[in-house]
Specification:
heterodimer, A: 496 residues, mainly alpha, 78% helix, 2% strand, B: mainly alpha, Helix Hairpins, 73% helix, elongated
Amino acid sequence: MDFIRNFPFFSIILAMFCGILSSVLKGKQARNLCLFMVTTVMLLSGAVLWYTTKAGSFIYMMGHFPAPWGNEIRAGVLEALTAVFFAVILFLSLLGGMKHIFFDVEETKTNLFFILVDLLMSSLLALIYTNDLFTAYVFVEINTIAACGLIMIKQDGHGIVAAIRYMVMSLLGSGMFLISLSMLYDITGQLLMEPAGEAVASLVSSGQYRVPLLVVIALMSVGLAIKSGLYPFHSWIPETYGYATPAASAILSSLVSKGYIFLLIKIFYRVLGYQAMVQTGITNVLFGFGLIGMIMGSVKAIQETDTRKMIAYSSVAQIGYIYMGIGLGTRAGMVAAVFHIFTHAATKSLLFISAVGLYEVSGGKSDYLSLRGSGYRNRTAGLAFAVGSLSMVGFPMLAGFISKLLFATAAVQSPAKMFFTILGLALSTTLNAIYFLRLVISIYSPAEREYGEEVSFLASRKLKAASFLFIVVNLVLGLFSQPIVDAIGVGLNQFI
Amino acid sequence: MLSHLAANMEETVSMILFGIGFTTLLLHKNLIKKIIGMNIMDTAVYLFLAAKGYIHGRMVPILTDGITDASAYTNPIPDGLVLTGIVVSVSVTALMLSLTIRLYRRYGSLDLDEIVMEWRKEER
């Protein structure tokens, strides 16, 4: 069974080679190869999950150089669980947005779209599994380039402006990450997470290099926060998610930003030391920005009339939730934050995919007044959108409820931040309810004009299937949350 | 304080360059200047790494005159990091420049503010 230890490496390299191979394939073949790759990665990561729950976490040596010199992959329960989950979400997003990919992208360039998805999957897996800081930086950049390609693949002015704005913000983030990495290497002499973590721990206990260490912590957190779109750095989010092809929006909002947050959590635990982080007060800063993001993202979403931009602003609020959980500075807060990564990935991709189904039947318009009655014209998409909205608002049985419950429980355990967390949750939930329920009511109220046969039913069976499966994922997260929460706890324990 | 700065001159310069590059990338309107800023920012990091990797009196890690004692050579890893960083920075620069060309062809301007204004007009 020890053969399974190879699987994390296999899945990264498989995704990368599929990308290279797709460059000589036609669009449909590249699509099939990509779907095959994602399914295989799902199965391989599933096997890793099974193995790690039984045998604990393991470190996989790349090449033949042992610990302080070589490169390493590390897999534990949390890594494997995240990989499985990301593969599922990627598969469903591609399935749901498939028709639009072939519609939005020029025919000769469809294989490029799948190359980018392959590279994105490979870099996400590498961010999840890697145990080396500089490797993490390289894959952060690959991830950024692939994401930029996905934004601009819809060859119009919007796409390119959105892509360049995304790139500028993202490069600021990676520059900060790179300089903090170099400083950390400078004061510890290590790039692998474990030896670097030990060196940082001894520096903290001896009180040496206090200021450089603080600078490293600040730059690293802020750099990755910019890249994942925490509140004051969110300016690129609405344009980016609002104009990309639907599958790309779903992938970008639910996976790309989460990859960076996962890396940040991993660095917090394995390199900088979580207790040391809490003592420096950086968690308080993240908590503050997360809280402001929760409120401001929702306020902006209420002002927005365009559905897709509204969903994008809602992402800003949800990223705020995740950083608030990290910022609580307790284990329970971190578990809630990781669970919310899953919740948001499942729900936001569901919303983006089902919103497509809705405005396909509304003459292609996406402001919420034009969407009136679309829930009757495309019942599957309407149902899926309603489920997604209710999950975002925190309706019991759905994923969003569990994460809100976890956040609230975590808040009670940290008295200093309890008041603000609960207040923020209450406010943000109310604001969420305002704009999501407004939309749900609007799609189920009678239309002002008749839509003829021309828009009667464009939605494909794939979109239907994807919507249903997304609803199932949401219900699974909502109804069977305990095993997942336990697995997250086990995974976080393995980090230390 | 000043003596510390003088003793770590390379690091000080690299931090100043990083700041210049960072602000140029963040605040400048012109896309080409933004890209130049990004390159300054990355180069500052390479200077930092190279300065940290250099130890006075030691040789580059290539075996010379049969000296096998490790203390005669510097650590090759910082140089390796610089090379990897350069590769990443070149590819990102190429991507940014290609995006800039596309934008210039479409909007006839390199000013990001103007481009965004044009773009908002199109949206209406």
